[in-house]
Queue: 2 jobs
Job 1
Amino acid sequence: MKKAIYQRRSRGVCPTDVSAGGYQRKRNPYVLTGGILLAVLILLAILVPVLSPYSYETQNVEIQNAGSSLQHLFGTDKFGRDIFVRVWYGTRISLLVGAGSALFCGVIGILYGSIAGYAGQKTDMLMMRLADVIDAIPSLLYVILIMLVLGANVGSILLGICISGWIDLARIVRGEIMRLKEREFCVAARMAGAGTVRILRKHLLPNAAGPVIVNITFQIPKAIFTEAFLSFVGVGIAAPVASLGTLIQDARSQMQVYPSQMFYPIVVLCILILSVNLIGAGLERASRLEEEG
Amino acid sequence: MNVLSVQDLSVQFHDRHAKGETVSGLSLEIAPGEIVGIVGESGSGKSTAMQAVLGLLPERAEVMSGKMLLNGDSIAPPPYRDGRPQKQEQKAYEKKMQQIRGSQIAMVFQDPLSYLNPTVKIGRQITEAVRVHNKNCSRAQAKVRAAELLDMAGLRRPKESLDKYPFEMSGGMRQRAAIAIALACEPKLLIADEPTTALDVTVQGQILKLLARIAEETATAILLVSHDLGVIASVCQRVLVMQNGKMVEEGTVEEIFYDPRQEYTRLLIERASGLCALTEKKISGEALLTLKNVTKSYHSGRRNLDQKKFEAVRDVSFELYKGETYGLVGESGCGKTTVAKMITGVHAPSGGAVLYHGEELVGMQRQIQMVFQDPYASLNPRMTIRETLEEPLLLNTSDSPEIRKEKVTEIMKMAGLPPEDAGKYPRAFSGGQRQRIGIARALMLRPELIVCDEPVSALDVSIQEQILELLEQIQRETKVSYLFISHDLNVVKRISQRLGVMYAGSIVESGATESVYEDPWHPYTKALLSAILTPDPRTARRRRKMAAGGEQEKEVQYDTGCPFASRCGYAMECCHADRPKTYCFGDRKVACFLYSEEYTGRRSNDYKMTSQI
C-alpha cells in the first residue's frame, strides 16, 4: 500500500522587507486538475444510476457480452448486465468507502494524536504502544474477520479499513504537536490563561494543518484501492452488488476474448485514484510553499 | 599584487521576493596579510556579496561583475543570457571554482554547529578538506596535518579533539575547528562571515585574536564581515561600509571611526557607542518579587542507579522592587532563561521559593508576563495580530467585542504600531515590528512585572535602540517593572538600574548597575567587562590581557569549589575546595572568597569595601 511521506523543510529567516498584507494563493495546477476530474466522476456516479434505464442486476441473456453501443455505452457483461451503470454504482461504493474512511480516520487520528502529543510522558507512551499493537495486525485480517461476523457489505469493509487506518495520522499529529508545544507562542498563550482545549484548537492544530490535511487526503485513494482489491479477491463486497473490484473479477474469466469488459472499470478506478492523488500532491505543494513563505 | 580584486559586483535575484539588486556596484581590493572589514546592517548585502565571490549562490541569483581577479586570474562567473544561465559555461565555471574553493579561498560561517557535519568526527572533516585538494596525501599524513592545524587554531588538546564529534565541543572550540578546516590547504584568502556572532563575549575576543595572529603569521588575507562595529574595530585595518547593497564608504579603520565622511557611517558609529550610555532613575517602593535560594535541578539516568543531578540554577536569591528594571546578565548556559521560566511559572523550582508580593508563586500569574527572544517564533503564524492581542482579554475579562477592539487599538498605539495593521498576519511584519507586537501582547493585561528574555538579541542595532526606547517609555507611562535578561552588557547597562551577574547557575555579583560597571568586584564580572569590544580602534588594540581564558563548561559537577575557579586568575586553594557564600556589603553582594572575612581580615563595621582585584 502506498504511504505518503511528508518531508519537513527547515524554516529559513524571513526577509526583512516582507510585502504588506497576507500571502497570495498561487494557482495550483494539481489541485485544479484533480478537482475537476473528481467532480466529473462524482457527478457521473450520482446521476447515472438514477437516470439510466437499466438497473445493475437485471440480467438479460440475449445481449450478453455485447460491445459498446449507444444503448450500452460500455457494453454488457456475461450475464447481460449493463456495464456502464454497474461501473457508476461501483464508483459510488468506492467514493463512500473513501470519504467515510477519511472522515472517520481523520477525526479519530487527530483526537488520539493530540491527546498523546500534548499529554506526553506516561500517557503518551501507553497510547502509542496501544496504537502500535493495533497497527501490527494487518488490516486484511481485520476485514476478513469482520466480514465473517457482520456479513459482506460496505459497512464491514469501512469498519475493517478504519480500525487501523487512523494510526498513521495519529503519529503525524502527535509529532507535530510535540514539536509545536514548546514554541514560544504556546507558552505565551498559556501565560495568558489558555486552557488545553483552546491551545489545541487555536494554536497547535492550525499550525499542524499542513501534513494532517495531506495525510487525510492520501487516506482516500488508499481506502478505495483496499476496497477494490478485497472485492477483486473475493473477500469484499459480494455479488451481485457492483463494486469496481467485483467488476474486474467478473471480467477476468473472459479477459482474452472480451478485453473491453475489464478495461472500463480499470480505467475509471485509475482515474478516481489519480484525481485524489493529484489533489493531495497539490495540497502538499501548497502547504510547503506556505511554510517557506 | 592584490589577492582579490573585485570591480563593480552586482547580484540580482530572479524570484518573487526580488526587489531590485541585492548588491550593486561593489568594488574591493585586498592585499596579502591584510585584514579588511565589511560592516553593514542585516540585509545590506554583505554576506550575499561574499557568497557571490565564491560562486555559492543559487541559480536564481544572477551575478554580474566588471572584473573579478584572484591573484591575477579571472574568477568571474559567466553572464546570463535573457535572464537564464548558460549550462555549458556554468559547468565550466563550477569546475574551476571547485578547485579554488578551499585551496585558494576559504570561508568560515556564523554558526559552527550548523556548518560542521554532526555525524562526522572533527578529525575526519579536516583530513577530508586536506585530501580533497592534495591527491597524494596519505591518511596518516593528513592526520598529522590536522593535528597541526588544530594546534594552530588554539585547541588545547589537538590529538584528542581529532576524535570528537562537534556536539561534544563548546561553541568556541567548534569555531576554532571550523577555522582549522578553512586553513587546511593554506588559502590565500579567508572570508569570515560573522564568525563571532553566535559566541559568548569572552570567547569572541579569543577568536578575533586568533584571526589576527593567522593573518600575521601566514600572510593570509582576511575579509571579516560583521554587523558589530566593536568586532571590526578590534582587528581590521581597512573598513568598507555597506548599506542596501551599495558601498557607502571605504577607508582605513582610523578614518572610518574617527573621521567618517558619509552620514550613514556617522550614524552607525554614533549608535554603536551611544548604546553604552547610562540611564538615571530612582527606585522606590516595596519588593515586588523575591527569590530565596531558588534551585532547579534536572535528573538524568535511571532512578536509584547512576543518577546524575545537573543543577541548572543553584541557590539564586535576589529582590526586584516596584518600578525598577533589574538586569540579569550572563553568557549562554548560565541558567538565566531557567530563572525566567521559574518566575513566570513555566517550571516549578526544585528548591527554594519564588515570592510575589510576599506570597509563594503557584503556577502562572496574570500579573507576570513575558516578552520572548525570538520574534519569529513568538507569534502564532495562523492568527491575525488582532486575534493574538485579544486572546488575553478573551480569556481573562468579559469585555464586549467593542471594548476589546478599543483596548487593542490603545495598546497598539502605545507600542508604536499603526492600528490599521491589526488585521494582518505576522508574516507581513519585520523582526522589530514583531517584537513590538510581542511587547503589546505582554501589556494587554496591564501586568506589574514583565520578564524580558533577551528581547533585542535577534535585532539590528538601530532597531534595538528603538525597542529599548519603547520599553523605557512604557515604563515611564505605566510604572511597570522589568526583569531584563540578556547576555549583551551594553544593553543591560543602558536599561537597568540594578543588575545581577550569573555564572554557571548562580549569581556571582549583584548591585547597582553603575557601580558594578565602574568597579567590578568579582573576577568573572571583570572578565566580562573587559571582553566587551568597544567600537574604538585605539582602545581596542591597547586592551590588556583578558582576565579569564577558556570557556564556561556545560555540565560539570559543582559540588566542590567555586564554579569559576578553573578559569579564575585569582584562584586560591580554598576556592577549589569550598563554594563561596554570598557576602553582602550594603547593596553590593558578591560570591567570592576574596571578600570573605578570612581573607580580608576582620574590619570595623563601617569600613567601606572596595574591589579586591
Job 2
Amino acid sequence: MKRTLLRAAIFVAVLLVIYGLGVACEAGFTEYVQRIVLLAGINVILAVGLNLINGTTGQFSIGHAGFMAVGAYGAAYVGVQLAPVAHRALGTGAVSNAFSFNLALLAGALFAGLSGLIVGLPSLRLRGDYLAVVTLGFGEIIRILFNNATFLGAATGYFGDDPSGLPAYTTFFWVYAWVALIVVLIHNLTFSQTGRSLTAIREDEIAAEAMATPTTRLKVTAFAISAATAGIAGGLFAHMQAGVRPEDFRFEKSIDMIVMIIVGGLGSISGAILGGIFVAVSLELMRDLQQYRLVLYALLLIVIMIVRPQGLLGRRELYQLFRKRKAGSGLESSR
Amino acid sequence: MSLLELRGVDKIFGGLHAVRGVSFAVEKGSIFGLIGPNGAGKTTLFNVITGVYRPEHGEILLAGKDLAGLRPARIAARGVARTFQNIRIFRSMTVAENVMVAGHHLHSASIADAMLRTRRYEQDERALGKRAHELLEIFGLSHLAQEVAGSLPYGSQRRLEIARALMLSPELLLLDEPAAGMNSQEARTLNEQIRFLRDKLGLTVILVEHNMAVIMKVCETIHVVDHGETIAQGNPAEIKVNPAVLAAYLGQEEPNNQARS
C-alpha cells in the first residue's frame, strides 16, 4: 500500500517536472529548436524500442521505419475518427484532445505491434539473420502499401479530414511523458528474468534453449514490443507535422534508428537515449548536406567501429559507469 | 523402470551415419558413462537426447514418455539438463545471471509484472536469486557471483555450466566432457562433485568423457560406441578388458588374436 502511494507520488512528480520543462521549453526556445527537442524525444522512443530487439536480444531488424509508419498512419487515422466522438462526449477542451490523442497513439502501437507479430512469427522461428532480410522487405512493402492506399491519401500522404491537416497534438509534455513511460517499462523489462533470457538468446541461442528458455516466444514478444514502441513514436511524429507521408518512412529512417543504437552502444538503454538525441541534433546540423547524409553516417559508423566498436557506452548503463559491473544481479534487490 | 531409454536410435547427416541403432537404458540414480574414440557419435547422442537433432529412427523415452519431436526447451523443462563440450556459458552476463536464466520453473511473473515491478515479480526474483546462490555455493562460485562469466578461468566456467544446468532442477544431467582441460587435482574434485550430485541431490548422470580416471572411478555402467554403433556395455572392470573396446581405442590387435574380434 505504501509502495503504491510512493509510486503514485513519483509518477505525479515526474509528470509535473515534464510539464514544467515543457513550459520552460516553449518560453525559452524558438519554434525551430522546440521542434528538434520534440524530434529528439521521438528518436529516444525509437532507439530504446529498437535496442530491445537489436541490442538486448541480438536479432537484427533493419526495417523499423515500417513499424513507425504503421503506428503513424494508424494513430493519425484513428485520431481523426475518434476526435468527433471525444468532442461530443468530453467537449472540445484539452481533456478531450488528450483522450483522443493518447487513445490514437495506443491504437497505432497496437497496429504496429500486431504487424511486428506477423513479421516476427515466421522469421524468428529460425536462428540467424532471417529477421534482417524480412524486416528490410517489410519496411519497403509497408511504404509502398501506404503509397497506394487511396483512403490514406496515397503518395500525397494522410492529412485527415480537416483542411489544416492533422491536429498538432504532439507537445513537449506528451512526447516526454511517453519517453519516460517507455524508458521505465523497457528498462524494467531488460533487467528482469525476461531480459536475462533475451540476453541469453543473444549470447548463445543453443545454450539458452537447452536451459528451457522458450526462445521463439521470447524473441517474438520482444520484437512485437519493439514494433509497438516504434508505433508510439510514429503516432507522436504524425501529430507534430500536419500529416504523414510515405516518404517519411524510407529505408534511410531505419538506418537512422540503427545509427542511434550503435552510436550509443548496442544493448545499453542509456546509450540508445544518447544516440537518439545525437541523431536528432546531427541531422539538423547536417541539414544543408541532406544528400550526403548517408555517406556521412557510413563514415561515422566506420570511425566508431574502428575507434570504439562497442559504442559510446558499450553495454553498460550510464549509472553503471562509475562502479564495477553488476547489472541486474537480482541477488540484492534491484531498486 | 529406467529413467532414460534409447531404442534403436539412428541419426544420419547426409552420407554420414553418425549414430546407428544405438539402444541403452539408464537406471534412475545411476552414473552412466558414454565413451568412445573421437567422432564415435557421443555428442551426437547427447544432441539427439536433448532435442537439438531429431533422430531418423528410434525412440527416446524419458520415464516411459517419448521425447521425439520436442524442442530442446521442452525437453529441458521436462528435467533433462546438459552441459556442452565446448563451454557455452553466457559470456557477457554475470555468473549469477547465468544461473538465474535457467530458473523458469521458479518464475511465474509475467512480462507485465516485470515491467511494473509488481510484488509477484519481486518474490520470483528473490526466489531465483536465492536458489542461484545456493547452487553457486555448492560449486564454490558464490564469491564470483557478480563477475562477468566470460572472465572466469576455464575450470570455473565448467563448474558454472553445471551449476546453471542444475538450476533447471533436472532429474537427468548430461555432462559432455566435464573434465576436459582439467588437471588431475581438478578432475578428482570433479569426481567428488559428480558423486555428490547423485548421492545428495538424487540426480541421474550421463557422462561423456575421455578422462578414463574419471570414467572408471565414478561410473557404474559404461556404454561404448564407435563409428556410431554400440560395441560394448558393462561395468568398469568388464570394459577395461573388453577386446572390442581395446581394439577401438588402441587399433587392431596382433594378427594371432584377430580371429576373436
